[in-house]
Design goal:
- The complex is a heterodimer of chains A (about 190) and B (about 70).
- Chain A is mainly α and about 190 residues long.
- Chain A has 2 domains: about 70 residues, Rna Polymerase Sigma Factor, Chain: A, CATH 1.10.1740; about 100 residues, Arc Repressor Mutant, subunit A (Orthogonal Bundle), CATH 1.10.10.
- Chain A is about 65% helix and about 0% strand.
- Chain A is globular.
- With about 70 residues, chain B is mainly α.
- Helices cover about 65% and strands about 0% of the residues of chain B.
- Chain B has one domain.
- The N and C termini of chain B lie far apart (about 50 Å).
- The longest helix of chain B is centred in the C-terminal third of the chain and has 18 residues.
- The chains are: A mainly alpha (about 190), B mainly alpha (about 70).
- Chains A and B meet through helix 1, helix 4, helix 5, helix 6 and helix 8 of A and helix 1 and helix 3 of B.
């Protein structure tokens, strides 16, 4: 195990990454910084728990995930902000014709798994996630990244399952379009 | 039972199928539509790819250019 000062320096070097990771999910700079700070403190206090594990970043990210969920719970208890106008219903009128069929058939993405190996693609994905409305992004990240069940998300955020499904649908359709434009269609 | 459904309705069901168990009638309507609609098949596999990509987000090096 490295000396304590060394361990601290290694943790500190992860801070920029952790901040971006938290911001992507919390959409609130102050809340993201708090969560990262708590995670780093917990990591320092729990150095022994890291002993023998291969990857410091993976371990700290695991701690940070819990802090993010705590932050989401705290925010949900605060008085509800009205949905921003950008989060008003958008039924993808541009994507579908009046009869509900594609205005333009989605293009194929070939074998997209190869993109996962490219850091440029992950940049593009992050940029698309940042463009989602905040609440939609949060629900999407809780479901797809943190892997929570819809029922848990509804409870944490005090929304109905139907609302939850609508937001997830919108997030997926919007991200599809965004990646088509910024990556796969290029 | 649901009869023939549109692409809009199909993509909605494909998305919900990632979050809840669809009813029998929904599954049938979905399958019938997907057989004949390339656009919806593509949209569906792209939604599944998104799940995979976002799930791996923390595993992959996000800070290469940070």
């Amino acid at each position: 195990m490295p000396p304590a000062a060394d361990f601290r320096a290694q943790l500190e070097a992860l801070r920029p990454y952790l901040l971006r990771y938290a911001s992507l999910q919390l959409r609130d700079a102050a809340a993201a910084e708090d969560a990262v700070q708590e995670a780093l403190l917990a990591a320092l206090a729990g150095e022994a728990g890291f002993a023998g594990r291969a990857n410091l970043r993976t371990w700290v990210t695991g701690i940070l995930k819990h802090k993010i969920v705590d932050a989401i719970r705290r925010q949900a208890r605060e008085p509800r902000l009205p949905d921003a106008p950008e989060e008003a219903l958008d039924d993808f009128d541009a994507l579908f014709r009046r009869n509900g069929h594609w205005a333009e058939r989605p293009a194929g993405w070939g074998d997209p798994d190869g993109a996962l190996e490219q850091s440029q693609f992950l940049r593009a994905l992050e940029a698309c996630l940042e463009r989602l409305p905040a609440r939609t992004a949060r629900v999407f990240m809780m479901r797809e990244h943190l892997g929570h069940e819809t029922a848990e998300i509804c409870k944490e955020l005090a929304i109905t399952p139907t609302h939850c499904w609508v937001m997830l649908y919108r997030a997926r359709m919007t991200l599809r379009e965004c990646l088509q434009q910024t990556w796969f269609g290029k | 039972m649901m009869g023939l459904i549109s692409c809009k309705e199909t993509t909605r069901l494909v998305s919900q199928g990632l979050d809840r168990e669809l009813a029998f009638g929904e599954r049938v309507a979905l399958r019938v539509h997907l057989v004949i609609c390339l656009g919806c098949r593509r949209a569906g596999s792209q939604m599944r790819f998104l799940r995979k990509a976002v799930r791996e987000l923390a595993e992959i090096d996000l800070n290469t250019n940070a």
